[in-house]
Amino acid sequence: MFSLETLQFKQLLELIARSAQTPMGGKRLLNLQPHTSKIKLDRDLRGISETLTLEKDDITWGFSEMPDPSDAISLLKIRNTSLEPTVLRELAR
After folding, report:
1. What value does the mean pLDDT of the chain take?
2. 74 lies in a domain?
3. Can you list the alpha helix ranges (DSSP code H) found in 1-93?
4. Contacts of 81 by beta carbon, 8 Å cutoff, 6+ apart
5. pLDDT, tens digit, for every residue of 11-29?
6. Better-predicted residue by pLDDT, 59 or 13
């Protein structure tokens, strides 16, 4: 882990997380770790390549209006709990 400290990996993630479109995206960025599997690395690189191709073709999308489902998911972890229809509707938007 020393090399991650030298590369200021945590600080880099914090910097990138500031540009996330949603709080969920920011949290996900802050939890990233370097790959230790070439298979997973190759999969993610293919995803990045596809994203760059879409960007080159001027295809964009946004997630800034997406609600954070964390609270609803936490409720579902409680046995015999269900979500109110209004919560489901908000999550579906």
Report:
1. 89
2. yes
3. 2-6, 9-17, 23-30, 38-56, 70-76, 85-92
4. 75
5. 999 999 999 988 889 999 9
6. 13
Q: Are 23 and 64 in contact (CB under 8 A)?
A: no
Gyration radius of the chain over CA positions:
18
Range of the domain at 78: 65-93
> Which residue carries 């879409």 as its tokens?
54
- Measured CA to CA in angstroms, residue 34 lies from 1, 12, 40, 55, 60 at distances of 10, 12, 10, 25, 27
Q: Cα(29)–Cα(41) distance, rounded to whole angstroms? A: 16
Q: Is residue 25 part of a domain?
A: no
Total domains, the chain:
1
Inter-residue contact 72 to 91 (CB < 8 Å): yes
